[in-house]
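Section 4.2 – Deliverable D4.2 (structural model, holo form)

The reporting period included a commitment to supply a predicted holo structure for the target in complex with FE2/S2 (inorganic) cluster. Inputs used:
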Amino acid sequence: MICMNNSELKKLISRQKSNYSLDQEFYVSQHIFDLDIKNIFSKQWVFVGHISRIPNYGDYFLFNIGKESIIIVRDKDDSVHAHYNVCRHRGSHICLENEGNSKVLICPYHAWTYNLDGSLRGARLMDKDFNKNDWHLHKCNSQLFEGLIFINLSEHPNDFEEFIAPTKKFIEFHGLSDAKIANRQYYPTEGNWKLTLDNFHECYHCQPSHPEYCQVHDKDYIIAYGAGSNTGPASEKFDNILTEWNTKVEKMGHLTGEYYETEFNDYSRSAERTPLKEGMFTETKTGKPISKLMGKFKDYDCGYTSVGTSPFNSLLMCNDFATLFTFIPISPLYTQVELMWLVHKDAEEGKDYNLEEMKWMWDVTTIADKRIIEDNQKGVLSKKYVPGPLSQMERGLEKFKSWYLKHLENSLI
Ligand code: FES
Ligand SMILES: [Fe+2]
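Output (structure tokens):
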């Protein structure tokens, strides 16, 4: 099917079965992809970077999504601006490099020049009645929270405070505003964004596909919590481990608990603190502490904090480093996956941490996930693909899938 009208798409949505994967169209269609960008991605607050990526006045980077390119830039007073990368003269992209430093933004076409706050500074040979104040760059909604730069492409974005409220204390505990990027890496994935996130929302595949992940995390945790709380079958054994760990951690004055959405709403947020496998201090091969303690941790509590602020971002945090994920839908069959490893801002590579050891688990696991998703996409493209039944360990996938379908349906007037 090349293009569908709204009533055809509504019928297709109503044919989707609970606890089955989606029909092929959802994973291949350009039309559905365009609706996804407009109605799902563009309405979410998504973090696109950490402030330490632009430490100096004039530092900028581009965030590209669908047809949009956003300039994220640091101004003289350390404020961060986000502008659409579209010249107000005749529309050219202004910044062409993915990152750089510039005290003014100069359009390469006819040299209109903008201040970093987006105001127009100069435009040559315009008529006398031309008013520079009328030609400010289009502003993109942005918020800086705990060093994370969030953007929202909606014309009427949801209130940021309300959005961040349930996950706030979990992120704050890790002190990300006092962190820096130790490493940043892309994992370009030839698969639809929903196949990419289906994979991220279940840990049914973890035991067969991720021996490294299973080395760090307890088997009972993987079954019950591997893709977040309330996403796997209940495990009495893990419940007992968690209760005991909670008591210990509360005595230390550290944070415990969990959050997940209990009813359908605009968001898809989750957060929880759980213990790592016995004997592990952090998420490395040996499990030994690897860097300076971050945030409010007074000592190692051997815990793991998993936060999802939207389907497009996850924060997986140990006591001494954090791995942050951004999933960026690029086209129906292509998703950019970006990982950032954050450490305490004073930690020095080679002295306080070894980068290879720190990134080992999520690097090797994300490379494996890229392959899994690409093989999955190839099969889904076949004329013989039909949706298959989900297991008890894929409740997280089903939750994401039904959230997605309801959003898509609600957006069809
Ligand atoms: S399009 Fe930018 S100056 Fe002409
Ligand atoms: Fe995986």
